[in-house]
Specification:
36% strand; 5-stranded antiparallel beta sheet; 9 strands; mainly beta; globular; 1 helix; 136 residues
């Protein structure tokens, strides 16, 4: 049953991404937590993340990304994290927490999403690493 739930949530995320990006001329990258209760979208034109909490479980969502570089990015680079603990957002990108960064043009990095509970990272909650680059 968890696999079916994961597929349904992934399909909903893809649909939200298509709806949220209509008219965009740049690629948007996305990552989700290991249980699909958190997601983050990176918008390279503006260097902005949108963080979603899609489960009413009382946990927050942690975005972790590597230090952006114009060289070759690596998951072993310095890590930066941002916690969203404002509660359930659903899949609506208009409800997402917006985290704005200031990256060099064409800087690339890896990012992933996990969970926080009472200010502490929840072990094992990170999803896979995703590569993204800021706009040129």
């Amino acid at each position: 049953m968890p696999k079916i739930r994961h597929l349904a949530i992934t399909a909903a995320a893809a649909a939200a991404l298509v709806v949220g990006t209509a008219g965009s001329s740049y690629a948007i990258d996305t990552a989700s937590s290991s249980n699909s209760c958190g997601a983050a979208y990176f918008y390279p034109d503006g260097d902005t993340f949108r963080i979603l909490d899609v489960c009413s479980d009382g946990k927050g969502v942690r975005l972790q990304y590597t230090n952006p570089t114009t060289g070759t990015p690596s998951t072993s680079n310095t890590k930066i994290h941002v916690d969203y603990t404002g509660g359930y957002t659903g899949w609506s990108l208009s409800n997402a927490y917006v985290y704005d960064t200031d990256m060099n043009e064409a800087a690339c990095f890896y990012f992933r999403v996990g969970h926080v509970d009472d200010g502490s990272f929840v072990s094992g909650s990170y999803g896979g690493w995703n590569l993204a680059c800021a706009a040129q």
